[in-house]
Specification:
alpha+beta; 18 strands; 586 residues; 5-stranded mixed beta sheet
């Protein structure tokens, strides 16, 4: 019997509030095919539908259980909207499918399997975890948890597990935490805002990579083959695909998802947001990054459609939708791929800008089809995000490491690259032998965090084989010792206070073991270290008992708007609302 690597399943394209002609916009997505157990429970994702508010375990069984070699069917394709809303199976499968789709997109972009941040292989997913307007990733519980709460204007409930962007957002947190574990450390408003901003970017582009959502935005009532080209100008798209759709996104689920899309679209290029005190707050800071990326999405989409506009100012409707979905998908891929080209500690938006430009250059050096790098460079600068690297070969991209003189040249002949692709100790020896060339601090504790071989494939079939290595340095010193490193002690900080300085690099090796990039932030970077310590001191991170890690649940509570009372909402009995069949947990 043939093996089918993928299967199709029906999901809500966005959430139940996004409708065309009174019907919820749904779509079929492709996800990895596997033999599922009841839950559904698979090799990377396990749905455990337990409600902590009502102490209830819901019975959910995927239909069908694919215990054969036949391609499993899609039992939800023929169900009505009402049936899907009331189906516990669909709630569970919708959540499972979007988590798996997001995981698959990361693995495709990075060219390798992607691990969660915890030691286990399977993440637990609770579609109805609690009666609260919240959703979050919990590394301690190794779980994604989605809340539900009563609707404000009508009867019934709002479910986070039925919102595509909410699920993709939380899954991104879990994946990014596994890829860069130090990105949750207190460091700067930009590192604090990056987790939220990047999760929003992945969620938004995941939505717009679906043709059904793009169609809803550009021509919801259209039935003709052609459409008015005035609907797809930059101004029109800002109004329809962003402002209009963002209002629907935030109508019921703003308590869970916040208003990232709505607020980001209001941030127009040309303003100095990063020096505005309002944008010191991490969530607001993250919205600047979202705005810069979404601006590129629109600019490239509009440019791609111009050659297809007819003399009578009409445009093939199918072509407009396909171009929008394709641009979103491509931009999503390079945004995820850019994580490998980011420094492992003390990230700032300018670092991500250079990482994104470099990731695209590596696979598409000519950039002929989309001209993404040109638009990205322009958009980043328009929002005050100036790439860290000036770029000798192309503006904004990271430069290869300099050759150096004979005393600071990279040494290769004392290590074995074959072993370096999997052995942390062999990698550490390479780092140690080159500590002078890499300008490392001899007094700092140095640790290899990850070694990840990968294979990436471009649209032209070109294969790029690389090995990505992370290493970090930590140096504990007294505040009185900062001066010898040319780091300014924050005003009011006691001289005997112990502070920890961080540094680290992402090393990218080509298939022959040659070091292509050595991207990082050094402990010796006095300007950045001064800025970091000033921020941490100002916001009380050195106070006794202060948390060293911003918990995702607490971060997401700050996103709540308009549902201040939802946190205490209790649901007595869902069976009265014909929502779900349940089995009391023992």
């Amino acid at each position: 019997m043939p093996y089918y690597p993928i299967r199709k399943t029906t999901i809500f394209a966005q959430d139940p509030s996004v409708q065309i002609g009174g019907k919820i916009v749904r779509t079929q997505i492709e996800i990895p095919n596997e033999e599922l157990e009841p839950g559904p429970r698979g090799y990377r994702v396990q749905v455990v539908d337990y409600d902590s508010t009502t102490n209830t375990l819901y019975k959910t069984v995927p239909k069908p259980l694919n215990h054969s070699d036949d391609l499993p069917g899609d039992p939800f394709a023929s169900m009505t909207d009402t049936e899907l809303l009331a189906s516990p199976d669909f709630h569970a499968m919708n959540t499972y499918a979007i988590v798996m789709r997001t995981l698959a997109r990361f693995e495709y972009a990075l060219g390798r399997r992607v691990a969660w941040s915890f030691a286990g292989h399977q993440i637990q997913v609770a579609p109805h975890a609690f009666a609260d307007a919240n959703a979050f990733y919990s590394p301690d519980d190794q779980a994604l948890m989605f809340g539900y709460f009563p609707k404000v204007k009508t009867k019934g409930y709002v479910f986070g597990c039925l919102a595509h962007d909410v699920i993709a957002h939380e899954t991104t947190h879990a994946l990014l935490d596994g890829l860069r574990e130090r990105f949750t450390d207190p460091s700067s408003p930009e590192q604090a805002g990056f987790h939220e901003g990047f999760a929003d970017i992945v969620a938004i582009l995941s939505i717009f990579s679906l043709k059904d959502v793009v169609l809803k935005a550009v021509d919801p009532g259209g039935r003709k083959v052609v459409m008015d080209a005035r609907n797809v100008t930059l101004k029109a798209l800002r109004s329809s695909i962003l402002t209009g759709l963002a209002e629907q996104f935030g109508e019921e689920l703003s308590g869970i998802r916040g208003n990232a899309l709505r607020r980001s679209v209001s941030l127009l290029p040309g303003n100095d947001y990063l020096h505005d005190p309002e944008f010191e707050e991490p969530h607001r800071r993250g919205e600047v990054l979202v705005a810069a990326i979404i601006n590129v999405f629109l600019e490239v989409w509009v440019a791609r459609m111009k050659p297809y506009i007819h003399a009578d100012n009409t445009l093939d409707r199918k072509r407009a939708v396909e171009e929008g979905a394709e641009v979103a998908d491509h931009l999503l891929t390079i945004c995820v791929r850019a994580i490998d080209y980011c420094p492992p500690t003390d990230l700032e938006f300018c670092d991500f800008a250079s990482a994104l430009l470099t990731a695209d250059w590596e696979l598409y050096p000519k950039d002929l089809k989309y001209r993404f790098r040109e638009q990205l460079y322009r958009s980043f600068n328009a929002y005050g995000i100036v790439p860290t690297s000036t770029g000798r070969r192309e503006p904004g991209t990271w430069d290869p490491p300099p050759e150096g003189d004979k005393d600071h040249r990279v040494v290769y002949d004392r290590t074995h690259f074959e072993e370096m692709q999997r052995d942390f100790d062999e990698v550490f020896r390479f780092i140690w032998e080159n500590r002078r060339a890499f300008k490392l601090n001899d007094e700092a504790y140095t640790r290899v965090q990850s070694v990840r071989p990968c294979v990436r494939v471009g649209d032209d079939g070109f294969m790029l084989r690389e090995t990505v290595v992370e290493y970090v340095q930590e140096l504990k010193i007294r505040a009185s010792e900062l001066k010898r490193l040319d780091i300014e002690k924050p005003e009011g900080m006691p001289k005997d206070l112990e502070v920890t300085l961080y540094g680290g690099n992402a090393m990218i090796f080509d298939q022959f073991g040659h070091l292509k990039y050595n991207i990082g932030n050094s402990i010796f970077n006095a300007e950045r270290q001064t800025r970091r310590l000033k921020y941490l001191w100002q916001y009380g991170f050195f106070k006794p008992g202060s948390s060293k890690m911003r918990r995702f649940a607490a971060m997401h509570r700050k996103r709540m708007s308009g549902w201040g009372q939802a946190g205490g909402a209790q649901v007595a009995d869902w069976t009265a609302h014909e929502e779900l069949e349940m089995e009391e947990a023992e």
